[in-house]
Amino acid sequence: MSIELVSYESRHAETWDAFCNGAANATFLHTRRFLSYHGERFKDLSLLVMDSGKMVGVFPAAQALSDPGLVVSHPGITYGGLVHQGKLAGNRMIEALEAIVAHYAKGGYRRLHYKPLPFIYAAMPTQDDLYALFRLGGKRVRSDLSCCIDLAARRALSERRRRGLKKAQAAVTLSSDPSLLGELWGVVAQNLARKHDARPVHTLEELNLLHERFPQQIQVRCALLAGVVEAGVVFFNAPRIWHAQYIAASEAAYEVTALDAVFDAAIVEAQQGGALYFDFGTSNEEGGKVLNDGLYRFKSEFGGGGVAHEFYELDLK
User: Fold this and answer.
1) Is 195 exposed, middle or buried (0-12, 13-18, 19+ CB in 10 A)?
2) Cβ atoms 46, 62 nearer than 8 A
3) Please, where are the H alpha helices in 39-180?
4) CA atoms of 29 and 27, how far apart (whole Å)
5) Which pLDDT band holds residue 194 (cuts at 50, 70, 90)?
6) If you average pLDDT over residues 212-223, what whole number do you get?
7) Do 153 and 302 share a domain, yes or no?
8) What's the burial of 216, exposed, middle or buried (CB within 10 Å: 0-12/13-18/19+)?
9) How far is CA 138 from the centre of its chain?
């Protein structure tokens, strides 16, 4: 195997996305159709991995905003990693990552920050990159904890969640109408400001753009009180997994545990639709060093368990 690397250009977008659609370890977040919503925010350093003129992998990456000597795969998405269709296995993965490391080192970069795809998102076991990182001296620099339900072996609801669900079902009306995204986004923004003095990563304009591009993957599930959206979830879904990207509830919604009804209905819908996992997302603060235990327990009481989202760094010197 003779690895060659080609720097990504916009003319590669269609080929890149077609490759991701057939990949063993990609979601819509890896596509250029998604990544391009960032515009010129990042200096793109993405690579096409070639062997004998054929594409065998793609590597979404960009220069970190805070450090011009750091390459991140990828700063604009939750996870990145070396995407492939099964051919970059074992020693071939090591060779590919060696080539990528040499490429960025030659370009003057000092470190590579690698965010592997959590195993629950892969269509088949594809953790060869974790072994390759070990072989190349990669160090784990961060770990976040997500809560996920295995839909084929879901544990029972806790007693507290059963009580909450009964209370919520008597009080709220549920809706999956995508036109409610704007109203739900108001709840998301208020929730983050009230609880964390923060703002959503995406703006409403960006989310509307992404929803137009990915109407099947980006969905909303809302709880209404007296006809007004008071709680809900924005999902970023993949074929085998539902993922709660944003979760929010107003104070009125908390009074009736409205999210219990939203999640229960969404979990059933995901299961009936053939999904394998239901991912509530991470519950970490301060770069993974703090776990919001109350939030994590709330999620786990729906029948979930822990999945680590890991981050690695390679010294390119």
Assistant:
1) exposed
2) yes
3) 91-106, 128-135, 159-171
4) 5
5) confident
6) 97
7) yes
8) exposed
9) 22
Tell me whether residue 83 is in a domain.
yes
* pLDDT tens string 30-56: 999 999 999 999 999 999 999 999 999
| pLDDT, tens digit, 9 for 90 and up, residues 129-157 | 999 999 999 999 999 999 999 999 999 99
- Both 106 and 173 in one domain: the answer is no
- Quote the CA–CA distance of 57 and 277 in Å, as a whole number: 26
Write the single-letter amino acid at 307.
V
Helix, strand, coil tally for the chain in percent (to 5): 40, 30, 35
Q: Which domain holds residue 59?
A: 3-137
Place of tokens 């063993």: 24
Helix (H, G, I), strand (E, B) or coil at 59: strand
CA-to-CA distance for 77 and 71, rounded, in angstroms?
14
Encoded tokens for 307: 């999945």
Contacts (Cβ under 8 Å, ≥6 apart) of 108: 69
Decide: 151 and 277 in contact? Cβ < 8 Å.
yes
Cβ contact 83:25 at 8 Å: yes
Element (H, E) at 291: strand 290-291
Q: Specify the CATH number for the domain of residue 259.
A: 3.40.630.30
pLDDT of residue 197: 67
Q: SS3 of 18, please? A: helix
Q: What is the distance between the alpha carbons of residues 34 and 56, in angstroms, rounded to a whole number? A: 21
Specify if 117 maps to a domain.
yes
